[in-house]
Amino acid sequence: MIHHPRLHHFKAQSPLALWPAGLVLAGTLAAAYWGYEFSHDPGPVALGQVLFRSLRLGAALILPLLVLAWLCTLAGKALNRPPRRLIRMQEPHGVAHTRVQTWLLRPLQGIGLAMLLLSRVLAAVRIYRGDLLHAADIPGPGQADPWLHLSGVAILACSSLVLCLLWTLDDLGIRLHNQKTGEVRLLGRYLGLLLPLLVGMYGFFSIFDEHSHVLALDLIGLFSVVLYPPLVLLVWLHGRYLARRQAELTRRLGAKVRLLEVDQEEEAAG
Length: 270
Fold this sequence. Notes:
- By secondary structure, the protein is mainly alpha-helical.
- It has one domain.
- Helix content is 67%, strand content 6%.
- The chain starts with a helix and ends with a helix.
- The relative contact order is 0.20.
């Protein structure tokens, strides 16, 4: 088995790495208690509502990890088409996850992707109502709005499925090898980093394009604070899951494990 340096970093991760998520959640609870969040019931009732919401959102993000292996099987069948073949290669200098990547970059990717899908839902609501939404129209924790709650869970689950697959390709060092020409493309690095980042930025800009700037800032601020803790937890759990099942996921992707020397110029061209 090839030991990917990036995955050794995952095994060394401790639950203490989740402290930024805990800090944001504690701040959210304090804001809810003192009535600074979109809630009509500040005080102890709001604390229970925020905790229940965090559990619901966390479950929506984390449960898709259970089908990650199945997704890798589908991805392998879709990408392994002659003369192209997925390979997993050991790089001379593996790039370990940094604090910026774990605490900032990947959570922002998730928030941005969720914002993009959310903008589509809000656009549909706006068309249905025939007017613009206002901050007061956004349901707070504990308010009964089954349709929006189900839509939010579906958005987060879809975002989690996409991100977990792309992160897996990136973390495993998956590349697309053209067996006919010998060309090697940095598939995992491109899909796992650039694509979610670009889509996330588009999601943020979509909110501003389709709604007033005041509402857009309210939405981005609220959902960033709400989604950050469960997304950090997702990043952490994904790393631990990958460390334990890297061999199985590589097999399901149909990727050949190879030691392949690639010039930096060729990598840049790919």
